[in-house]
Amino acid sequence: MAYSAKDYSKLIGMAGFSETLLKNHFTLYQGYVTNTNKVLDALAAMLKDVKTATPEFAELKRRLGWEFDGMRLHEYYFENLGGKDALDLNGKLGKKIVESFGTYEAWEKDFKAVGAMRGIGWAVLYEDVTNGQLINFWVNEHDVGHPAGCQPILIMDVFEHAFMIDYGLKRADYIEAFFKNIDWKAAEARLK
């Protein structure tokens, strides 16, 4: 079964994100979808030809994590954008954030600090599904640093392609724009 790129054009016109930045980002995402399909097809052909004990098979299996996670993290990211309403602190996610961090402000400070860290990657609010605890994580590469058994709730892309066109090196300004556009209902729907 092949993956298809989703259409996120509804985000065009979102405050703080130029059309050029979004269209470039959509194109990059579409590349991850295309490459995920190519890697899966190549692996299927190798399985069919019994070429699994090869370095090529091993490298493609390793590459699959990069391409697939790049695809999926971008989907989560785009899907938790486009909102205009503040988080309902009396809602399920609002209560869970306060329970896990003490206050919404403590969570926001921590999440923004993760997003502002030097380097490329992702700031991700995860739910540990074993106990419901919410934890902010830095994910350096698409396929490295995900906490096992945790559900991504809110994803912020902090690779340069997510902000450089509009903000240059001013990552903090991008983070503020991101926060003004969070679709909290989409994030809340990911809670287990």
How does this structure look, described?
- By secondary structure, the protein is mainly α.
- The protein folds into two domains: 17-79; 92-188, 3-Layer(bab) Sandwich (minor pseudopilin epsh fold), CATH 3.55.40.20.
- It has helices at residues 19-48, 55-79, 92-101, 104-115, 164-167, 171-180, 184-188, and strands at residues 122-128, 134-139, 150-157.
- Strands 2-1-3 form a three-stranded antiparallel sheet.
- Strand 1 and strand 2 form a beta hairpin.
Proportion of residues in extended strands: 5-15%
Q: How many helices in DSSP terms?
A: 7
Q: Give the overall silhouette.
A: globular
Structural class designation: mainly alpha
CATH architecture of the largest domain: 3-Layer(bab) Sandwich
Q: Report, as a whole number of angstroms, the end-to-end distance.
A: 26 Å
CATH superfamily of the largest domain: Iron/manganese superoxide dismutase, C-terminal domain
The CATH topology annotation of the largest domain reads as minor pseudopilin epsh fold
- Gyration radius, in Å: 18 Å
Spell out the helices and strands N to C.
HHHHEEEHHH
Q: What's the assembly state of these chains? A: single chain
